[in-house]
Amino acid sequence: GNQLDAKIDKLGRDLNQKIEKILEESGMQKVELENLRQIVSNMSAENNESAREASEMAKNITNTRKWCEQRFEDTEATLEAFRGKFQNVDERIEKVEETLGFCDKRLALLEETGGSDSQVRMGLQSMLADLETNFDVVKADVGQLKDVDFPNTTKNLADQREEMETQFGAVDDKLANYMTQLLELDQFAEDAKNQLYEQIPQREKDVNATLSEHNRDIEGNRNALEEFKVAADSSLTKQAANAGNRLEDLTGQFKAQQKALHEVSQGLDAMKNGLKRTGSKLAGTVQTLEDTKKRMVESALEAQDFVTNIVGEENVATQLKIDAQRDETDGKLAAHQEEVSERFKHRDGRGVVTLETEDQEKYLVKHAQTLVVLCADMEDVNASRKSVTRDWSSDQAQSVTQVTRDLVEYMAEKADFEAVKMVIKGAKERADYNEDSVFERRRKLVARFIGLLNGLLEDVHPGANEFKKKTRELFCGRVHTALESGLTKYEQVMIVGNSKMLSKKLDVPRCIACELPLVNSKWRTNLIDSEHR
User: Fold this and answer.
1) The whole model's pTM is what?
2) Can you tell me whether residue 392 is helix, strand or coil?
3) Mean of the pLDDT values across residues 490-511?
């Protein structure tokens, strides 16, 4: 009885401590919410202060600009007065010139009359000489000011004005950008504040409701413990077993409540990264499902192999393994085809050539990946059979045909598109549209795609054994043949067999129905090469 009482008392103390801890954590959450509100408020205040400083800066720049413009106007007024002074100097120079002319006339008259007053004549001559000297000096100084100094001063002032206007323009641009950034930041802070003010009160309300509910549950558990203690005192022997079960139930309930409260306390942090975590979880879930499916298939295959080894039915196990791999391959093919269809929606192989180069590369890679899935499946099947079959199923042939048909349209259109572009571009060495060059472009595109296919196969399915290697060579060879066969319908047909300009008929391939010769550029190239050997 004493041990049971001690155990019940200890459980009650532990329960009270945990209740106090829960209440303390809820109080800390409230403090964190209040701090978050304070941070948002401070951010808004800082943004308002930044906007006010930017407005004050704009006002100061505007006042400075007005002051500089007033100084420019004063300078221009001074220059205008300077021009007036030059005009007055010009007028005085004209008067001096008139005086000189008058002196010349008086001197000439004196010489004509043969005046005997030599002193007057000498005085006039001396005056005239001094006047001419002074006039030359004044005229030279004024010319220097007028022709050199004044234009240089005017040009310097104009350059200074232009430079200051450029600087002010740059300052205005920077200020405009700064104001735009401030407005965007202020709007962002306002949106964040509104969002937080909408979410935090509701979240706080939910937390408080959850805490209240937990407190009620805890209080009920405490009352239940008290009742249990009373019942244990009255009927210790009968209630001993029930007490243990009740304690376990209460402990489980408390742990569940504690876990729920912990999840609630993490709610605010989960909101911040909700979308990101959700995306990661979805991706992880999809990958987990794929891995689980793969492991289930592998487990089924291993179990079947085990049964097969016991009963000796090796062919049944091999067929089941092949069927499972084929189902997995069909799923991958469907996913690839859906992705390609969605990415290049409303575009066949001919329309892809108008896309960007990066998108064209993606188009080729997506089709190559589809073929890689098919080839890898065939390699695994042949490796398990330890033989290479040259017969393909209808589904496999149809899948390869669909892919190569789209690629043929793209390659034919790509080669023709590049050739016509070179003609329009006007390159000297490629001024004419040449069917041979187009054929060569198509051949290079086919070779490039086969190289891409081999590279992807090596990356996805490395370490091929003898059977996988032969299967891969067979698969790539048939894809190459399918591409070349599909491109033949785009080759130029040349009806030359019955031409009157030839001395003899050529032995060329003919149509079965109409017996017209079918000569394309590839056949012509081979014929020319054979004649030059």
Assistant:
1) 0.34
2) coil
3) 55
